[in-house]
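so im writing up the methods section and need the Fucose isomerase record in one place, dumping it here so i stop losing it
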Amino acid sequence: MNTMEKTPTLGVIYGNRDFFPDQLVAEARADLTRLFKELGIRAIQLNERETKLGGVETHEDARKCAALFREHRDEIDGVLVCLPNFGDEKGVLDAVRLSGLNVPILVQAYPDRPDELSPARRRDAFCGKISVCNNLAQAGIRFSLTRRHVEHPLTDDFRRDLQWFLGVCRVVNGMRGLRLGAVGARPGAFNTVRYSEKLLERHGISVTTVDLSEILGAAEKLDGRDPRVAARLQEIRSYAPAPGVPEEKLVQMARLGVVLADWMQANHLHAMAIQCWTSLQRHYGCNVCTLMSLMS
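--- predicted struct ---
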């Protein structure tokens, strides 16, 4: 499924610590439930019966949380660590590490209110966040932070941070297993588009290549009356006005577009780059700019 179409899914860890009020965890669950419903986010989290209020405090809690995350590992885009109170840094670390997930992590902590510093309402999540992040850093686990050290989930500040984090998840997960296509050689006039296939492969990104002549040859052989060519021609006309452009050139572009789309589909490619200059113009007779714009 396209990462832009998939319902964003976050694994949520509610940090909890003995001595601090448990009710804050229940309130945090209600806050995130409301926020996630508003933003269309699906949560994978312990329920209130699996651990105390669904929080993670002990090593046993962490194991339960990790098992849940492993069960949904193919669905989870990222992990949100929510600290309604100080939280237990070892519990959070164990849950993340034992889950085996390799997804982006965002650490959020609630602010204390000056009028709610009694034992019944004190959070101290400011310091708890420092401890959690220090433990993650010690373990070499990368994580992201909110712009403000402490943010209530129902504030505009956190909404913006969460939307940014969802974007990070889309990029990270979209790049994993990415299949790219390279049509033709790098244009000699552009050093700016140089890249290393080996470097990409090291990060799980594969590149499939094809000689430009194969694509142009297939386009030349394609009958301009082919229904697929007619459909692509209509797509080009609907995309942008083309006054004064000869009909045969539009058909030529449509034939090329069909061949490129077929090649992408046959190789299960997510994106493609084309040798856009100058062989295509000299040997085929049109530019590829419109087709590339349509693909974007």
